[in-house]
Amino acid sequence: MKIPRPRIAVFAATSLDGHIARPDGGLDWLEAANARLPPGEDCGFRAFLDGADLLAMGRASFEAVLGLGRWPYEGKPVEVLSRQALVLPRALRESVSVVAGEPAELAARWAAQGLRRVYLDGGQTVQRFLAAGLVDEITLTIVPVLLGAGRPLFGALPRELALVPLETRSYGFGFVQLRYAVQPG
Question: What pTM was estimated for this model as a whole?
Fold first, then answer.
């Protein structure tokens, strides 16, 4: 009997022009936008994170989050997807591991571990999993800022991917959140 793979979901914020970070990886624009949110508002992020068994993120995203000075994923198992060696901060060694592999191999391993839902983070990582047909859902929060240049969330794909709208939410402070199911290809 084949073990079902976990649902793999993306939860990301982009600038209006589609960037997840500045060209140098900087997230200051996102931190500034988040600082203007009403107290207690997180646009559904905590509930999304709590519903995931694992966070799998790319190395660049991991390093960018470390640069923020606080670890926002306390208590959540995290795998940093990297082909290069990476020294983890001592405080994170219990919950963070570094793994390598192709998306299909990783998804099969997660299935064998009994994971039901994986939160996928990082531009190149998301692009690789989308290209492999392994992303089930995308929640995209658009922040009202134009960066003009930066690191894109999406890139070239081997084929067009159809998305099924699940929910659209507009926040009074200017964010717009779109949630889609990725149509199986």
Answer: 0.93
